[in-house]
Amino acid sequence: MKTRVGDAIEKFGMLTDCRSVTAGLSGGADSCALLGSLYELREELGIDLSACHINHCLRGAESDRDEMFARELCDKLSVPLEVYRIDVRGAVGKHESIEQAARRLRYECFGKAREKFGSVIATAHTANDSAETVLMNMIRGTGTKGLAGIPPAREGMIRPLILCTREQTEAYCRENGIDFVTDSTNLEDDCTRNRIRHNVLPLMKEFNPSFISAVSRMTEAVGKDEDFISGYAAKAAADCRTDGGFDSRRLGELHPAVRFRIIAAELKEHGVEPSELRVSQCEEIIFKGMGRVNLCKDRFAYVRKKVFFVKNEFQAYRNRTDNG
């Protein structure tokens, strides 16, 4: 376990810019294995180790039990712990599920912990989690980015367990006498990820007992390709930039994979969720050399005077009644 964690940290350059690590500690086997392995490696890695626990207040007494467990474990190890209690149900926004609100608030808390400790945040995502994510993305429809799974490191977040399986984290806890708690909602089949975890992954392992390892190799290879193409697209976007947008002729000459990423990034920059349909609509006016596309309410893509751009444009709507 220690070797795999150390290998992941070195392989993916997780601590290149920071030697302070805050482990996300839910109390489950994965997060306890994460904290335990980082604690064992702290001197070897030369890191300052801390932890944060987020109580989502969604499971009543069980949530409070998890918080108390995290406090006791960190007290036992003398690891500084920051606890955040969040009212997820009260913070659910319009068109947002409880799961989406919980994730949004969780990452806000991670941001606070990063600021407090001056650290990177280590989450306990394993190779199993990455495989589940790949399968979820495939079910919904995805490109290469979705096939790359969970990135080992990105934007102040690292995943030291990404080369470890869930079975290995549980074995580590047993072998080292580390207690952990179980989130009862993880045992239910009421969400896509749990159904994949309990039903699809076991079936995949019947076809290939090394399925998790096979997916890990795939995600690493796809991740490298995605990094290269995205980097190339960023340079191409800079070359195509012009006053007010992008040179539509130069966009039209680019490889479709590069053009797709430039358009998608521009849509996202203006608060529009990229999709195959929206990007293809933008490409249509780019090749035509002129036109306008209504992407969503108050968001439009234009090609004018050979310049492609996206604009937030408020539209006044009024009800009309038929007096005829």
Main attributes of the structure:
324 residues, alpha/beta, 2 domains, six-stranded mixed sheet, disordered C terminus
Descriptive notes:
This protein has 324 residues and is of the alpha/beta class. It folds into two domains: 2-218, 3-Layer(aba) Sandwich (Rossmann fold); 243-312, no CATH class. It has helices spanning 2-11, 29-45, 61-77, 88-91, 98-117, 127-140, 144-147, 166-175, 192-207, 211-240, 248-253, 256-269, 276-288; strands at 20-24, 48-55, 81-85, 120-122, 153-154, 157-158, 241-242, 245-247, 291-296, 299-304, 307-312. Strands 3-2-1-4-6-5 form a six-stranded mixed β-sheet, sandwiched between helices. A five-stranded antiparallel β-sheet has the order 7-8-11-10-9. Strand 10 and strand 11 (307-312) form a beta hairpin. The longest helix has 30 residues, at 211-240. The radius of gyration is 23 Å and the shape is elongated.
Secondary structure topology:
Elements: H1 2-11, E1 20-24, H2 29-45, E2 48-55, H3 61-77, E3 81-85, H4 88-91, H5 98-117, E4 120-122, H6 127-140, H7 144-147, E5 153-154, E6 157-158, H8 166-175, H9 192-207, H10 211-240, E7 241-242, E8 245-247, H11 248-253, H12 256-269, H13 276-288, E9 291-296, E10 299-304, E11 307-312
Parallel strand pairs: 1-2, 1-4, 2-3, 4-6
Antiparallel strand pairs: 5-6, 7-8, 8-11, 9-10, 10-11
Helix pairs in contact: 2-8, 6-9, 6-10, 10-12, 12-13
